[in-house]
């Protein structure tokens, strides 16, 4: 049996998940054992926003995600030019733990 066949992972993508969820704010918190990324959709003039998806990662997977995002952004920018930074959300983001936002 071919070694590559043993290492293949069959990933299923349902129609519902394939549609995706729009997010224009990510709130990242962490503990000693996990990273939590909340994806939020903020609408202009609306004072309330809902978390649309929450992803929990081990620290090792969070670091792999960082590397994969960095690599993909570099590839994107080599084709389409530098991504311009915009200003962040002008509101305090404190949900009771160490936080960063992207």
Could you explain the architecture of this structure?
With 102 residues, the chain is an alpha+beta fold. The chain has a domain at 21-80 and 98-102. Helices cover 29% and strands 24% of the residues. The protein is built from 3 helices and 4 strands. It has helices at residues 3-6, 15-18, 59-80, and strands spanning 25-30, 35-41, 50-57, 99-101. The chain has a 4-stranded antiparallel sheet with strand order 3-2-1-4. Strand 2 and strand 3 (50-57) form a beta hairpin. It is globular and about 50 Å long. The protein starts with a helix and ends with a strand. Mean pLDDT is 87; it is low at 92-96.
Number of contiguous helices? 3
Head-to-tail CA distance between termini: 45 Å
Q: What is the mean pLDDT?
A: 87
**Protein structure class:** alpha+beta
Q: Could you tell me the radius of gyration in angstroms? A: 17 Å
Low-confidence stretches: 92-96
The beta-strand count equals 4
Q: Percent of residues in helical segments?
A: 25-40%
Strand order of the largest sheet: 3-2-1-4
Write the element-wise H/E pattern from the N-terminal end onward: HHEEEHE
Globally, the shape reads globular
What percent strand?
15-25%
**Largest sheet data:** 4 strands, antiparallel
């Amino acid at each position: 049996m071919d070694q590559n066949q043993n290492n293949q992972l069959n990933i299923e993508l349902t129609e519902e998940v394939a549609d995706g969820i729009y997010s224009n704010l990510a709130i990242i918190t962490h503990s000693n054992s996990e990273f939590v990324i909340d994806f939020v959709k903020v609408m202009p003039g609306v004072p309330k926003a809902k978390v649309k998806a929450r992803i929990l990662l081990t620290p090792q997977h969070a670091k792999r995600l960082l590397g994969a995002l960095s690599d993909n952004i570099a590839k994107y920018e080599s084709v389409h030019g530098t991504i311009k930074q915009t200003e962040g959300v002008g509101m305090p983001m404190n949900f009771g733990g160490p936080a960063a936002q992207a």
